[in-house]
Write a structure and sequence with these properties.
The structure is a homodimer.
Chain A (H helix, E strand, L loop, with lengths): L1 H28 L6 H7 L4 H7 L3 H25 L4 H18 L1 H9 L13 H14 L9 H20 L8 H12 L3
The structure holds a DNA duplex.
DNA sequence: GATTCGATCCTAGCACTGCTAGACACCCGA
DNA sequence: TCGGGTGTCTAGCAGTGCTAGGATCGAATC
Protein backbone atom coordinates (compact mmCIF):
# COMPACT_ATOMS: atom_id res chain seq x y z
CA UNK A 1 0.00 0.00 0.00
CA UNK A 2 2.73 2.40 0.94
CA UNK A 3 4.25 2.28 -2.50
CA UNK A 4 0.99 3.15 -4.17
CA UNK A 5 0.42 5.97 -1.72
CA UNK A 6 3.83 7.41 -2.48
CA UNK A 7 3.10 7.25 -6.19
CA UNK A 8 -0.16 9.03 -5.73
CA UNK A 9 1.57 11.71 -3.68
CA UNK A 10 4.18 12.18 -6.37
CA UNK A 11 1.52 12.31 -9.02
CA UNK A 12 -0.40 14.96 -7.13
CA UNK A 13 2.80 16.93 -6.65
CA UNK A 14 3.51 16.80 -10.34
CA UNK A 15 0.02 17.98 -11.12
CA UNK A 16 0.51 20.97 -8.84
CA UNK A 17 3.83 21.59 -10.57
CA UNK A 18 2.12 21.65 -13.96
CA UNK A 19 -0.50 24.15 -12.84
CA UNK A 20 2.02 26.36 -11.05
CA UNK A 21 4.37 26.31 -14.03
CA UNK A 22 1.60 27.10 -16.48
CA UNK A 23 0.54 30.02 -14.34
CA UNK A 24 4.08 31.30 -13.97
CA UNK A 25 4.77 31.03 -17.67
CA UNK A 26 1.48 32.74 -18.50
CA UNK A 27 2.19 35.62 -16.14
CA UNK A 28 5.69 36.01 -17.52
CA UNK A 29 5.01 35.79 -21.24
CA UNK A 30 1.25 35.56 -21.71
CA UNK A 31 -0.96 32.57 -22.39
CA UNK A 32 0.13 32.42 -26.02
CA UNK A 33 3.57 31.41 -24.81
CA UNK A 34 2.11 28.54 -22.80
CA UNK A 35 2.46 25.78 -25.36
CA UNK A 36 2.40 22.15 -24.42
CA UNK A 37 6.01 21.79 -25.56
CA UNK A 38 7.33 24.69 -23.52
CA UNK A 39 5.30 23.64 -20.51
CA UNK A 40 6.56 20.07 -20.76
CA UNK A 41 10.12 21.27 -21.07
CA UNK A 42 9.81 23.45 -17.97
CA UNK A 43 8.50 20.65 -15.80
CA UNK A 44 11.17 18.39 -17.31
CA UNK A 45 8.78 15.80 -18.67
CA UNK A 46 7.62 15.02 -22.17
CA UNK A 47 4.41 16.39 -23.63
CA UNK A 48 2.24 13.28 -23.23
CA UNK A 49 2.68 13.46 -19.47
CA UNK A 50 0.52 16.57 -19.47
CA UNK A 51 -2.27 14.56 -21.05
CA UNK A 52 -2.13 11.96 -18.31
CA UNK A 53 -3.15 14.72 -15.89
CA UNK A 54 -5.39 16.91 -18.03
CA UNK A 55 -7.54 16.31 -21.08
CA UNK A 56 -5.81 19.14 -22.86
CA UNK A 57 -4.58 22.68 -22.64
CA UNK A 58 -8.05 23.97 -21.90
CA UNK A 59 -8.24 21.93 -18.70
CA UNK A 60 -4.88 23.30 -17.59
CA UNK A 61 -6.24 26.81 -18.03
CA UNK A 62 -9.27 25.75 -16.04
CA UNK A 63 -7.07 24.48 -13.21
CA UNK A 64 -5.24 27.81 -13.07
CA UNK A 65 -8.61 29.55 -13.04
CA UNK A 66 -9.87 27.54 -10.08
CA UNK A 67 -6.69 28.23 -8.15
CA UNK A 68 -7.10 31.92 -8.94
CA UNK A 69 -10.73 31.94 -7.87
CA UNK A 70 -9.81 30.61 -4.45
CA UNK A 71 -7.12 33.23 -4.01
CA UNK A 72 -9.37 35.99 -5.23
CA UNK A 73 -12.15 35.07 -2.84
CA UNK A 74 -9.70 35.14 0.08
CA UNK A 75 -8.29 38.51 -0.98
CA UNK A 76 -11.73 40.05 -1.38
CA UNK A 77 -12.81 38.83 2.05
CA UNK A 78 -9.61 40.09 3.65
CA UNK A 79 -10.06 43.50 2.09
CA UNK A 80 -13.66 43.89 3.20
CA UNK A 81 -12.92 42.61 6.70
CA UNK A 82 -10.36 45.39 7.13
CA UNK A 83 -12.87 48.10 6.23
CA UNK A 84 -15.46 49.81 8.45
CA UNK A 85 -18.96 50.52 7.25
CA UNK A 86 -20.79 49.51 4.07
CA UNK A 87 -19.38 52.30 1.90
CA UNK A 88 -15.79 51.56 2.86
CA UNK A 89 -16.35 47.85 2.42
CA UNK A 90 -17.63 48.22 -1.11
CA UNK A 91 -14.82 50.60 -2.05
CA UNK A 92 -12.25 48.21 -0.58
CA UNK A 93 -13.87 45.35 -2.45
CA UNK A 94 -13.72 47.21 -5.75
CA UNK A 95 -10.08 48.18 -5.28
CA UNK A 96 -9.11 44.67 -4.22
CA UNK A 97 -10.85 43.23 -7.28
CA UNK A 98 -9.17 45.58 -9.74
CA UNK A 99 -5.88 45.14 -7.95
CA UNK A 100 -6.09 41.38 -8.31
CA UNK A 101 -6.87 41.70 -12.00
CA UNK A 102 -3.95 44.07 -12.53
CA UNK A 103 -1.44 42.01 -10.56
CA UNK A 104 -2.47 38.64 -11.98
CA UNK A 105 -3.51 39.33 -15.56
CA UNK A 106 -2.92 35.77 -16.74
CA UNK A 107 -4.95 34.29 -13.90
CA UNK A 108 -7.70 36.83 -14.53
CA UNK A 109 -7.70 35.84 -18.18
CA UNK A 110 -7.93 32.18 -17.26
CA UNK A 111 -10.89 32.99 -15.03
CA UNK A 112 -12.95 35.28 -17.22
CA UNK A 113 -11.41 35.74 -20.63
CA UNK A 114 -10.26 32.34 -21.84
CA UNK A 115 -12.12 29.10 -22.22
CA UNK A 116 -11.13 26.87 -19.36
CA UNK A 117 -14.03 24.53 -19.94
CA UNK A 118 -15.70 25.55 -16.69
CA UNK A 119 -19.40 25.99 -16.07
CA UNK A 120 -20.57 29.33 -14.72
CA UNK A 121 -23.75 30.40 -12.97
CA UNK A 122 -25.04 26.84 -13.05
CA UNK A 123 -25.64 23.80 -10.91
CA UNK A 124 -22.36 22.14 -11.73
CA UNK A 125 -20.27 25.26 -11.31
CA UNK A 126 -17.09 24.36 -9.40
CA UNK A 127 -17.08 25.38 -5.74
CA UNK A 128 -14.21 27.92 -5.97
CA UNK A 129 -16.14 29.89 -8.59
CA UNK A 130 -19.32 29.86 -6.55
CA UNK A 131 -17.33 30.93 -3.54
CA UNK A 132 -15.70 33.85 -5.36
CA UNK A 133 -19.13 35.09 -6.39
CA UNK A 134 -20.29 34.56 -2.81
CA UNK A 135 -17.44 36.76 -1.59
CA UNK A 136 -18.73 39.52 -3.85
CA UNK A 137 -22.30 38.94 -2.75
CA UNK A 138 -21.47 39.21 0.94
CA UNK A 139 -20.35 42.81 0.73
CA UNK A 140 -22.46 43.95 -2.18
CA UNK A 141 -25.74 42.52 -0.95
CA UNK A 142 -25.91 45.03 1.90
CA UNK A 143 -25.74 48.01 -0.47
CA UNK A 144 -28.11 46.73 -3.14
CA UNK A 145 -30.85 49.06 -1.95
CA UNK A 146 -34.49 48.39 -1.05
CA UNK A 147 -36.39 46.06 -3.31
CA UNK A 148 -33.37 45.17 -5.38
CA UNK A 149 -32.34 41.54 -5.54
CA UNK A 150 -28.83 41.19 -4.04
CA UNK A 151 -27.88 38.70 -6.73
CA UNK A 152 -28.97 41.04 -9.47
CA UNK A 153 -27.11 43.94 -7.92
CA UNK A 154 -23.99 41.84 -7.50
CA UNK A 155 -24.11 40.83 -11.15
CA UNK A 156 -24.27 44.45 -12.26
CA UNK A 157 -21.56 45.64 -9.94
CA UNK A 158 -19.36 42.72 -10.87
CA UNK A 159 -19.89 43.34 -14.57
CA UNK A 160 -18.83 46.95 -14.09
CA UNK A 161 -15.67 45.88 -12.30
CA UNK A 162 -15.00 43.31 -14.97
CA UNK A 163 -15.40 45.91 -17.68
CA UNK A 164 -13.04 48.28 -15.92
CA UNK A 165 -10.51 45.52 -15.38
CA UNK A 166 -10.43 44.31 -18.96
CA UNK A 167 -10.64 47.67 -20.70
CA UNK A 168 -7.96 49.10 -18.44
CA UNK A 169 -5.57 46.30 -19.17
CA UNK A 170 -6.22 46.50 -22.89
CA UNK A 171 -5.21 50.16 -22.77
CA UNK A 172 -8.67 51.30 -23.78
CA UNK A 173 -9.20 53.66 -20.86
CA UNK A 174 -7.25 56.72 -19.77
CA UNK A 175 -4.78 55.68 -17.07
CA UNK A 176 -5.09 58.93 -15.12
CA UNK A 177 -8.80 58.30 -14.46
CA UNK A 178 -8.24 54.96 -12.74
CA UNK A 179 -9.00 56.12 -9.21
CA UNK A 180 -11.89 58.51 -10.01
CA UNK A 181 -13.52 55.73 -12.01
CA UNK A 182 -13.68 53.53 -8.91
CA UNK A 183 -14.95 56.39 -6.78
CA UNK A 184 -17.67 57.21 -9.26
CA UNK A 185 -18.75 53.61 -9.64
CA UNK A 186 -19.02 53.03 -5.90
CA UNK A 187 -20.76 56.34 -5.22
CA UNK A 188 -23.37 55.81 -7.89
CA UNK A 189 -24.09 52.10 -7.75
CA UNK A 190 -24.03 51.45 -4.03
CA UNK A 191 -26.90 52.60 -1.87
CA UNK A 192 -25.40 53.57 1.48
CA UNK B 1 -4.72 55.45 -66.93
CA UNK B 2 -8.04 53.70 -67.28
CA UNK B 3 -6.50 50.27 -67.02
CA UNK B 4 -4.74 51.12 -63.79
CA UNK B 5 -7.89 52.63 -62.37
CA UNK B 6 -9.84 49.50 -63.16
CA UNK B 7 -7.19 47.40 -61.45
CA UNK B 8 -7.33 49.55 -58.38
CA UNK B 9 -11.10 49.26 -58.31
CA UNK B 10 -10.90 45.50 -58.54
CA UNK B 11 -8.27 45.40 -55.86
CA UNK B 12 -10.40 47.49 -53.54
CA UNK B 13 -13.38 45.25 -54.23
CA UNK B 14 -11.36 42.19 -53.38
CA UNK B 15 -10.22 43.78 -50.16
CA UNK B 16 -13.82 44.43 -49.18
CA UNK B 17 -14.60 40.83 -50.09
CA UNK B 18 -11.86 39.61 -47.76
CA UNK B 19 -13.13 41.65 -44.83
CA UNK B 20 -16.76 40.73 -45.46
CA UNK B 21 -15.90 37.04 -45.79
CA UNK B 22 -13.77 37.06 -42.65
CA UNK B 23 -16.61 38.68 -40.75
CA UNK B 24 -19.18 36.25 -42.11
CA UNK B 25 -17.05 33.25 -41.32
CA UNK B 26 -16.32 34.55 -37.83
CA UNK B 27 -19.99 35.12 -37.11
CA UNK B 28 -20.88 31.69 -38.42
CA UNK B 29 -18.19 29.59 -36.77
CA UNK B 30 -16.17 31.85 -34.49
CA UNK B 31 -12.82 33.52 -35.02
CA UNK B 32 -10.96 30.27 -34.41
CA UNK B 33 -12.44 28.98 -37.64
CA UNK B 34 -11.14 31.98 -39.57
CA UNK B 35 -7.87 30.52 -40.78
CA UNK B 36 -5.97 31.98 -43.67
CA UNK B 37 -6.55 28.81 -45.68
CA UNK B 38 -10.29 28.72 -45.15
CA UNK B 39 -10.57 32.43 -45.80
CA UNK B 40 -8.53 32.13 -48.99
CA UNK B 41 -10.66 29.24 -50.17
CA UNK B 42 -13.88 31.16 -49.58
CA UNK B 43 -12.75 34.16 -51.60
CA UNK B 44 -11.45 31.76 -54.24
CA UNK B 45 -7.87 32.98 -54.15
CA UNK B 46 -4.73 31.48 -52.69
CA UNK B 47 -3.43 32.35 -49.24
CA UNK B 48 -0.66 34.75 -50.29
CA UNK B 49 -3.24 37.04 -51.84
CA UNK B 50 -4.43 37.87 -48.32
CA UNK B 51 -0.95 39.07 -47.49
CA UNK B 52 -0.89 41.43 -50.44
CA UNK B 53 -3.80 43.26 -48.78
CA UNK B 54 -3.03 42.84 -45.08
CA UNK B 55 0.11 42.29 -43.07
CA UNK B 56 -1.45 39.26 -41.46
CA UNK B 57 -4.49 37.85 -39.76
CA UNK B 58 -4.35 40.48 -37.05
CA UNK B 59 -4.82 43.27 -39.57
CA UNK B 60 -7.83 41.47 -41.02
CA UNK B 61 -9.36 41.36 -37.56
CA UNK B 62 -8.57 45.04 -37.24
CA UNK B 63 -10.36 45.79 -40.51
CA UNK B 64 -13.47 43.95 -39.31
CA UNK B 65 -13.24 45.91 -36.07
CA UNK B 66 -13.15 49.26 -37.86
CA UNK B 67 -16.11 48.30 -40.01
CA UNK B 68 -17.96 47.27 -36.86
CA UNK B 69 -17.11 50.49 -35.07
CA UNK B 70 -18.64 52.53 -37.84
CA UNK B 71 -21.82 50.47 -37.79
CA UNK B 72 -22.02 50.58 -34.03
CA UNK B 73 -21.68 54.34 -33.92
CA UNK B 74 -24.49 54.70 -36.44
CA UNK B 75 -26.74 52.30 -34.52
CA UNK B 76 -26.13 54.06 -31.23
CA UNK B 77 -26.91 57.45 -32.73
CA UNK B 78 -30.06 56.13 -34.38
CA UNK B 79 -31.26 54.62 -31.11
CA UNK B 80 -30.70 57.79 -29.10
CA UNK B 81 -32.25 59.99 -31.77
CA UNK B 82 -35.46 58.00 -31.52
CA UNK B 83 -35.73 58.51 -27.76
CA UNK B 84 -37.15 61.46 -25.86
CA UNK B 85 -35.45 62.85 -22.79
CA UNK B 86 -32.10 62.09 -21.20
CA UNK B 87 -33.27 59.04 -19.26
CA UNK B 88 -34.84 57.42 -22.31
CA UNK B 89 -31.81 58.26 -24.42
CA UNK B 90 -29.40 56.57 -22.03
CA UNK B 91 -31.62 53.52 -21.71
CA UNK B 92 -31.93 53.28 -25.48
CA UNK B 93 -28.19 53.66 -25.81
CA UNK B 94 -27.53 50.86 -23.34
CA UNK B 95 -29.97 48.52 -25.03
CA UNK B 96 -28.61 49.32 -28.47
CA UNK B 97 -25.08 48.66 -27.29
CA UNK B 98 -25.90 45.31 -25.70
CA UNK B 99 -28.04 44.41 -28.67
CA UNK B 100 -25.18 45.07 -31.06
CA UNK B 101 -22.83 42.95 -28.96
CA UNK B 102 -25.35 40.12 -28.84
CA UNK B 103 -26.18 40.21 -32.54
CA UNK B 104 -22.61 40.59 -33.76
CA UNK B 105 -20.49 38.65 -31.30
CA UNK B 106 -17.60 38.17 -33.72
CA UNK B 107 -17.47 41.84 -34.60
CA UNK B 108 -17.66 42.75 -30.93
CA UNK B 109 -14.78 40.38 -30.25
CA UNK B 110 -12.76 41.95 -33.03
CA UNK B 111 -13.41 45.36 -31.53
CA UNK B 112 -12.80 44.76 -27.85
CA UNK B 113 -11.69 41.23 -27.17
CA UNK B 114 -9.12 40.30 -29.79
CA UNK B 115 -5.93 41.96 -30.83
CA UNK B 116 -6.55 43.76 -34.08
CA UNK B 117 -3.40 45.80 -33.77
CA UNK B 118 -5.36 49.01 -33.25
CA UNK B 119 -4.49 51.87 -30.94
CA UNK B 120 -7.09 52.95 -28.40
CA UNK B 121 -7.56 56.13 -26.38
CA UNK B 122 -4.54 57.67 -28.09
CA UNK B 123 -3.51 60.22 -30.69
CA UNK B 124 -3.28 57.75 -33.52
CA UNK B 125 -6.51 55.97 -32.74
CA UNK B 126 -8.38 55.33 -36.01
CA UNK B 127 -11.29 57.68 -36.66
CA UNK B 128 -14.07 55.04 -36.53
CA UNK B 129 -13.03 54.11 -33.00
CA UNK B 130 -12.89 57.71 -31.87
CA UNK B 131 -16.28 58.25 -33.44
CA UNK B 132 -17.85 55.26 -31.70
CA UNK B 133 -16.66 56.61 -28.37
CA UNK B 134 -17.96 60.03 -29.38
CA UNK B 135 -21.37 58.49 -30.02
CA UNK B 136 -21.36 57.21 -26.46
CA UNK B 137 -20.14 60.52 -25.13
CA UNK B 138 -22.90 62.50 -26.84
CA UNK B 139 -25.70 60.85 -24.92
CA UNK B 140 -23.85 60.02 -21.73
CA UNK B 141 -22.27 63.41 -21.21
CA UNK B 142 -25.61 65.00 -20.44
CA UNK B 143 -26.28 62.62 -17.56
CA UNK B 144 -22.83 62.62 -16.00
CA UNK B 145 -23.98 64.85 -13.15
CA UNK B 146 -22.57 68.09 -11.79
CA UNK B 147 -18.84 68.31 -11.41
CA UNK B 148 -18.25 64.96 -13.09
CA UNK B 149 -16.09 64.90 -16.20
CA UNK B 150 -18.21 63.62 -19.12
CA UNK B 151 -15.27 61.61 -20.42
CA UNK B 152 -14.77 59.95 -17.06
CA UNK B 153 -18.46 59.17 -16.75
CA UNK B 154 -18.56 57.76 -20.27
CA UNK B 155 -15.62 55.49 -19.52
CA UNK B 156 -17.34 54.09 -16.45
CA UNK B 157 -20.70 53.62 -18.15
CA UNK B 158 -19.05 52.06 -21.17
CA UNK B 159 -17.01 49.71 -18.99
CA UNK B 160 -20.20 48.57 -17.29
CA UNK B 161 -21.86 47.89 -20.62
CA UNK B 162 -18.78 46.08 -21.82
CA UNK B 163 -18.74 43.93 -18.70
CA UNK B 164 -22.40 43.07 -19.13
CA UNK B 165 -21.89 42.28 -22.81
CA UNK B 166 -18.92 39.96 -22.34
CA UNK B 167 -20.09 38.21 -19.17
CA UNK B 168 -23.53 37.67 -20.66
CA UNK B 169 -22.18 36.10 -23.78
CA UNK B 170 -19.79 33.90 -21.84
CA UNK B 171 -22.78 32.54 -19.92
CA UNK B 172 -21.53 33.96 -16.66
CA UNK B 173 -24.69 35.87 -15.79
CA UNK B 174 -28.23 34.67 -15.24
CA UNK B 175 -30.16 35.10 -18.49
CA UNK B 176 -33.43 36.01 -16.77
CA UNK B 177 -31.87 39.13 -15.22
CA UNK B 178 -30.85 40.65 -18.57
CA UNK B 179 -33.47 43.40 -18.63
CA UNK B 180 -33.44 44.31 -14.91
CA UNK B 181 -29.64 44.61 -15.13
CA UNK B 182 -29.94 47.33 -17.74
CA UNK B 183 -32.66 49.11 -15.76
CA UNK B 184 -30.60 49.04 -12.61
CA UNK B 185 -27.47 50.25 -14.35
CA UNK B 186 -29.20 53.17 -16.01
CA UNK B 187 -31.17 54.16 -12.89
CA UNK B 188 -28.11 54.18 -10.68
CA UNK B 189 -25.36 55.52 -12.90
CA UNK B 190 -27.19 58.23 -14.83
CA UNK B 191 -28.09 61.49 -13.11
CA UNK B 192 -31.38 62.58 -14.60
C1' DG C 1 17.74 -13.10 -5.87
C1' DA C 2 16.14 -13.77 -10.61
C1' DT C 3 12.13 -13.12 -13.53
C1' DT C 4 7.91 -11.79 -15.27
C1' DC C 5 4.55 -8.45 -16.04
C1' DG C 6 2.37 -4.10 -15.85
C1' DA C 7 2.46 0.76 -15.20
C1' DT C 8 4.88 4.81 -16.88
C1' DC C 9 7.07 7.57 -19.97
C1' DC C 10 9.15 9.08 -24.36
C1' DT C 11 9.94 9.18 -29.42
C1' DA C 12 7.85 10.06 -33.48
C1' DG C 13 4.29 11.64 -36.09
C1' DC C 14 -0.45 13.50 -37.47
C1' DA C 15 -3.20 17.37 -39.11
C1' DC C 16 -3.43 21.84 -38.53
C1' DT C 17 -1.85 26.94 -37.87
C1' DG C 18 0.25 31.71 -39.78
C1' DC C 19 3.31 33.13 -43.00
C1' DT C 20 6.80 33.37 -47.12
C1' DA C 21 10.14 32.32 -51.01
C1' DG C 22 10.40 31.41 -55.61
C1' DA C 23 8.60 29.80 -59.85
C1' DC C 24 5.10 30.51 -63.22
C1' DA C 25 1.69 32.70 -66.20
C1' DC C 26 -0.71 36.24 -67.93
C1' DC C 27 -1.63 40.81 -69.57
C1' DC C 28 -0.37 45.40 -70.77
C1' DG C 29 2.32 48.60 -73.59
C1' DA C 30 5.23 49.10 -77.35
C1' DT D 1 3.95 40.08 -82.08
C1' DC D 2 6.88 40.26 -78.60
C1' DG D 3 9.31 41.60 -74.22
C1' DG D 4 8.82 43.00 -69.32
C1' DG D 5 6.54 43.40 -65.17
C1' DT D 6 2.81 42.58 -62.44
C1' DG D 7 0.17 39.41 -60.19
C1' DT D 8 -0.80 34.78 -58.55
C1' DC D 9 0.01 30.12 -57.16
C1' DT D 10 2.59 26.01 -55.55
C1' DA D 11 5.31 24.35 -52.11
C1' DG D 12 7.37 24.64 -47.89
C1' DC D 13 8.93 26.41 -43.11
C1' DA D 14 8.48 26.43 -38.18
C1' DG D 15 5.30 26.14 -34.91
C1' DT D 16 0.69 24.43 -32.64
C1' DG D 17 -2.37 20.72 -29.84
C1' DC D 18 -2.72 16.09 -29.42
C1' DT D 19 -1.88 10.79 -29.81
C1' DA D 20 -0.32 5.99 -31.16
C1' DG D 21 3.22 2.87 -30.35
C1' DG D 22 7.17 1.01 -28.52
C1' DA D 23 10.81 1.05 -24.90
C1' DT D 24 12.04 1.07 -20.12
C1' DC D 25 11.93 0.73 -15.49
C1' DG D 26 10.37 -0.94 -11.18
C1' DA D 27 7.26 -3.66 -8.24
C1' DA D 28 5.48 -8.11 -6.99
C1' DT D 29 5.96 -13.02 -7.46
C1' DC D 30 8.26 -17.53 -7.41
Amino acid sequence: MSVQERKERERAARERLIVATARELAEQQGWDAVTTRRLAERIEYSQPVLYSHFRGKREIIGAVALEGATEMAALLRAATRAADGPRARVAALARAYLDFAARNPAVYDALFQLDGGLAYAQEDTPQPLKDAFAALLESLGEVAGDGVDPGLFTEVFWASLHGLATLTRAGRLLPEYAEPRVELLVDRLAVI
